[in-house]
Each structure stands twice: as structure tokens, then as C-alpha cells.
Design a protein that fits this description.
By secondary structure, this protein is an alpha+beta fold. The chain has one domain: Structural Genomics Hypothetical 15.5 Kd Protein In mrcA-pckA Intergenic Region, Chain A (Roll), CATH 3.10.290.10. The protein has three helices and five strands; from the N terminus they run ααββββαβ. Strands 2-1-3-4-5 form a five-stranded antiparallel sheet. A hairpin with a 2-residue loop joins β1 and β2. The protein is globular, with a radius of gyration of 12 Å. The termini are far apart. This is RQC P-site tRNA stabilizing factor. Associates with stalled 50S ribosomal subunits. Binds to RqcH, 23S rRNA and the P-site tRNA. Does not require RqcH for association with 50S subunits. Keywords: Protein biosynthesis, RNA-binding, rRNA-binding, tRNA-binding. It comes from Enterococcus saccharolyticus subsp. saccharolyticus ATCC 43076.
Length: 88
């Protein structure tokens, strides 16, 4: 499954266009490798996503073509959520 589609269906990011933009700006890694929106996501992959001053690290648990809101959280497991404070 494409990375941008996984992020939308799992509801980590609400819109696919936003997921594509975040990925194409180099803010997402799959298993430590920089990912594009078209990168393939498999069960067991570790995603590291940077949202402004937050970094989410999630493990991919399930892949579905579509899902209900209640089932979306079952698609991934939150490993860590880190705040990054940029003091310069």
C-alpha cells in the first residue's frame, strides 16, 4: 500500500493530499530510510513522522483498503511521541 494512502486510511493524517505533502518534504522515514508519498508500506514497518515540533513513531500492524473510524487505530501501534523544542 502507498504511504500516503496508509496515513489517510489509518487516520494518522486526515487528508491524503496533506500526507503526500508531508512525505514529499522529507518528514517521513520508513525503517530509517527517507520515504516519498508513493513508497510502499508493509506490515511490520516502522514509520517516523515529523509534524512541526512533534515526532511520531508507529509500527504498521494491519493494512486495509478502507476502514471505519473505530478500526483505524488498529492499523498501527504508537511506539513513541516526542516533542522537539527548537531553541536557537
Amino acid at each position: 500500500m502507498r504511504l500516503d494512502k496508509f496515513l489517510k486510511i489509518s487516520r494518522i493524517i486526515k487528508r491524503r493530499s496533506v500526507a503526500k505533502e508531508v512525505a514529499d518534504k522529507g518528514r517521513i522515514q520508513i525503517n530509517g530510510t527517507l520515504a516519498k508519498s508513493s513508497s510502499s508500506v508493509k506490515v511490520g514497518d516502522i514509520l517516523k513522522i515529523q509534524f512541526g515540533n512533534r515526532i511520531l513513531e508507529v509500527a504498521v500492524k494491519e493494512l486495509h483498503e478502507s476502514t471505519k473510524k473505530e478500526d483505524a487505530a488498529k492499523m498501527y501501534e504508537l511506539l513513541s511521541e516526542t516533542r522537539v523544542d527548537n531553541f536557537e
